[in-house]
Design a protein that fits this description.
The protein is mostly helical and 300 residues long. The chain is built from 13 helices and 2 strands, in the order H-H-H-H-H-H-H-H-H-H-H-H-E-E-H. It has a two-stranded antiparallel sheet with strand order 1-2. Strand 1 and strand 2 form a beta hairpin.
Length: 300
């Protein structure tokens, strides 16, 4: 371990530093539960993104050494863990608060919840559109839109295919989580899994939770380094593809619905709450725009 690493490690052990990481993790946890807000973007805004990605990559390397019985690598283990453990604790706290808040209002105020999410998704679409180029958008936005709509119209299933989808959702959600600008929960929304996993974690459905967390673990092993490289080398292509995916997801988050199908407010069977929904849409959109502006400013 170099002297710089030892200095960084000693700083990470300081109580205030640990509390700061837990607090940042809590904000990230709340963000990841809400479709349209990326935990990666929040991490970058809060000044912890580079340390987080570096720690994840370091942990992968140390884990590989330990699997090969290179026990000297144990000395390097505290370095990534002092960053990742407080962040993880904070994220669990934030996610727990967000999940329990959402699950209590989604049944009785679904129109309002979807209105807020619709605004968040619109903001994410604008962000990904701006982050790409016209030629990439022309090529890859339609592809993303077709894929998204194909997923949206897949029949729901409680069979083995449905269980596999939960695993795939966790796998892809981790990849999105470490991409600034892309929300893991938004991918779950596109896959039709967002509300399913919210309810599963609230009800402690251990089978669904285990499948999902196994997918996340696989995503960590697979995505930690390649995603960073992919974003560095093909960022505009990735953003164009995700812009199409997000456009397709709007079908699922339109607030006024008749069963599985969107309807106009005056066709909605119940309190359309048009003014409240529009306000929440604007709020969600504005929140993503502010976060995106800060992200762009910090990364430039």
């Amino acid at each position: 371990m170099t002297s710089n690493e030892q200095t960084e490690l000693s700083r990470s052990f300081q109580p205030l530093a640990v509390i700061g990481l837990v607090a940042r993790g809590a904000v990230m946890g709340v963000a990841e539960v809400l479709p349209g807000i990326s935990g990666g973007t929040v991490a970058l805004i809060l000044g912890v993104y580079d340390r987080m990605v570096g720690a994840l990559s370091k942990l992968i390397l140390v884990s590989k050494d330990l699997v090969q019985m290179k026990w000297t690598s144990l000395r390097q283990l505290p370095e990534p863990l002092t960053v990742l453990v407080p962040l993880l604790v904070g994220m669990l706290i934030g996610a727990f608060i967000a999940i329990n808040t959402i699950v209590h209002i989604i049944d009785t105020h679904q129109v309002l919840v979807l209105g807020a999410i619709f605004g968040l998704v619109l903001g994410a679409i604008v962000f990904t559109f701006r982050a790409s180029t016209l030629n990439r958008l022309f090529l890859f936005l339609p592809l993303g839109l077709v894929v998204s709509l194909a997923i949206v119209f897949l029949p729901k299933s409680d069979s083995s295919a449905g269980w596999i989808l939960i695993y795939v959702g966790g796998f892809l959600a981790f990849g999105a989580w470490i991409l600034p600008g892309i929300s893991g929960s938004l991918l779950l929304l596109i896959l039709g899994l967002w509300q399913t996993m919210i309810e599963a974690f609230h009800a402690l459905d251990w089978l669904k939770m285990l499948l999902f967390l196994t997918g996340i673990l696989t995503g960590w092993l697979v995505f930690s380094h390649p995603v960073k490289v992919l974003l560095e080398r093909h960022r505009t292509t990735v953003m164009a593809l995700f812009c199409g995916l997000l456009l397709g997801s709007l079908w699922k988050v339109w607030p006024w619905r008749d069963g599985a199908y969107p309807v106009l407010p005056h066709q909605f069977d119940g309190n359309a709450a048009i003014i409240e929904v529009i306000v929440l849409m604007a709020t969600g959109f504005g929140l993503v725009m502010v976060l995106s502006h800060v992200y762009t400013k910090n990364s430039s």
